[in-house]
Amino acid sequence: MNCAEFERQLMIDPACSESAFLSHWQNCMRCKPEADKVWHMNQQIKKLLAVDVPPRLSSRIIAEQKKRRKRPIRRLF
Ligand SMILES: [Zn+2]
């Protein structure tokens, strides 16, 4: 894998676990600083997304529960 291929793969998927990609990351002094920067950015984005999901999820659950409460209660007997 050369530098151009590495950079392309980095933009597509910085979490790529291909051995050619990882060994270029470790061994190329030209690409490593940039790859580290992209990887850290990607981690931060993931963290932000992880924080953003629960509030939306809980409001969806509350909305779902309100809908259920509106349904008439069926008597079993
Ligand atoms: Zn390189």
Description:
The protein is 75% helix and 0% strand. It is built from three helices and no strands. The chain is rod-shaped and about 75 Å long. The structure holds zinc ion (ZN). Residues 3, 6, 24, 28, 30-31 line the site of zinc ion (ZN).
Shape designation: rod-shaped
What is the mean pLDDT? 86
Taking all Cα atoms into account, the compactness measure Rg is: 23 Å
Bound molecules: zinc ion
Number of domains: 1
Strand element count = 0
Please tally the helical runs, counting DSSP H or I stretches of 4 or more residues.
3
Structural class: mainly alpha
N-to-C SSE series? HHH
Provide the helix percentage: over 70%
- Major sheet: size, sense and barrel closure? none
Q: Percent of residues in beta strands?
A: under 5%
Unreliable parts: none
The N- and C-terminal alpha carbons lie at a distance of: 72 Å
List keywords for this structure.
77 residues, binds zinc ion, mainly alpha, single chain
Short description:
The chain has 77 residues and is mostly helical. The chain has helices spanning 3-12, 19-27, 32-70.
